[in-house]
Amino acid sequence: MQTLQVELGERSYPIYIGDGLLAQSALLTRHIAGRQVAVVTNETVAPLYLETLLHALEGFKVASVVLPDGEAFKNWETLQLIFDGLLTARHDRRTTVIALGGGVIGDMAGFAAACYQRGVDFIQVPTTLLSQVDSSVGGKTGINHPLGKNMVGAFYQPKAVLIDTGSLRTLPSRELSAGLAEVIKYGLICDEPFLGWLESNMSALRALDNAALTYAIERSCVAKARVVGADEREAGVRATLNLGHTFGHAIETEQGYGVWLHGEAVAVGTVMALEMSHRLGWLSTQDRDRGVCLLQAAGLPVVPPQDMTPEQFLEHMAVDKKVLDGQLRLVLLKRLGEAVVTSDYPREILDATLRSDYAALVQSSNS
């Protein structure tokens, strides 16, 4: 088992990474202050891992809240089901909420914990690669709004993150690839040597090699913890973690939440950010194509939806959380391994990026 630390003063917390950790009761119970626990999970994860978790929580008064599965349910109506479960079981301020599932469950359970009786403890037990390397770490919680993704929420840190790599053995290949989009992101924004490792080990990752997965998760979490420790509330450097997300969130909102997986939309958004960085003269053709090819090797889409217009992109991007004083800030790459958040770019470069022929770009990248 590997143990990392997110350094946030009195709100610091550990990240445990290893195979079979879900059954290790002591890792969870040391972070539970009271006797009540509410496990929030979904219809897909519950049959796989809920019983194991409940066994690890023997001796506690546990209530389970099983939600419908999918991004389409990340909304107020589903959030209310968590509050219904907490209130029906008469949970008090010393209860601990445990999020057992992927990013949607983690975001909603964390938001519910932030709100219930003005804040109760919660623990993240992420079961997808995307949630293990990204959404479970850093305290971002929330729900979607029909006009914008993750526009309603709170910064609220967990007491611990328990990453059982064994849960990835039941993860569908499409979900695994979606998680790899966030893994690749860390190499692009702050760890260029990691890109080389990913290029050499992508086949092992997609084959669920435990050693490769554990290393990739650990290296991703180290990067995330370092950034969050420096900028918890996204006032500066933390925004670089959103590489590809502004374009990607526009795809998710326009296409309908859940039609594209988050990681799939981020992958296409990352290709668009690579292209815009190239058009600004910051990335060479070779470096742009290197990023595109790595995303493809991960089994990810790299071409935007054909039915989505530049005007639709701009409409959704206008309500992105990185818009300040009416200025759209984008995460772009000065070079591989160095990201920047900027609104200082010619509008015609953004327009040209949105109108690029990505099918031709991908074909050129592969030639």
UniProtKB/TrEMBL annotation:
The keyword Glycoprotein is annotated on this UniProt entry: no
Uppermost EC category: lyase
Record-annotated 3-dehydroquinate synthase N-terminal domain positions: 65-177
GO molecular function (one): 3-dehydroquinate synthase activity
Names of required cofactors: Co(2+); Zn(2+); NAD(+)
Ranges of residues in domain 3-dehydroquinate synthase C-terminal: 179-323
Pathway membership: Metabolic intermediate biosynthesis; chorismate biosynthesis; chorismate from D-erythrose 4-phosphate and phosphoenolpyruvate: step 2/7
InterPro entries membership: Dehydroquinate_synthase (IPR050071), DHQ_synth_AroB (IPR016037), DHQ_synth_fam (IPR030963), DHQS/DOIS_N (IPR030960), DHQS_C (IPR056179)
Keywords for this protein: Amino-acid biosynthesis, Aromatic amino acid biosynthesis, Cobalt, Cytoplasm, Lyase, Metal-binding, NAD, Nucleotide-binding, Zinc
Chain residues that bind Zn(2+): 182, 245, 262
Known catalytic reactions: 7-phospho-2-dehydro-3-deoxy-D-arabino-heptonate = 3-dehydroquinate + phosphate
Residue sites binding NAD(+) per the record: 69-74, 103-107, 127-128, 140, 149
GO BP, sorted A to Z: amino acid biosynthetic process; aromatic amino acid family biosynthetic process; chorismate biosynthetic process
Keyword presence, Translocase: no
Subcellular location: Cytoplasm
UniProt superkingdom: Bacteria
Co-factor: note: Binds 1 divalent metal cation per subunit. Can use either Co(2+) or Zn(2+).
EC number of this enzyme: 4.2.3.4
One Gene Ontology CC term in the entry: cytoplasm
PANTHER family assigned to the protein according to its UniProt record, in alphabetical order: 3-DEHYDROQUINATE SYNTHASE, 3-DEHYDROQUINATE SYNTHASE, CHLOROPLASTIC
Primary role: Catalyzes the conversion of 3-deoxy-D-arabino-heptulosonate 7-phosphate (DAHP) to dehydroquinate (DHQ).
UniProt similarity note: Belongs to the sugar phosphate cyclases superfamily. Dehydroquinate synthase family.
Name the UniProt record assigns to this protein: 3-dehydroquinate synthase
Organism per entry: Ectopseudomonas composti
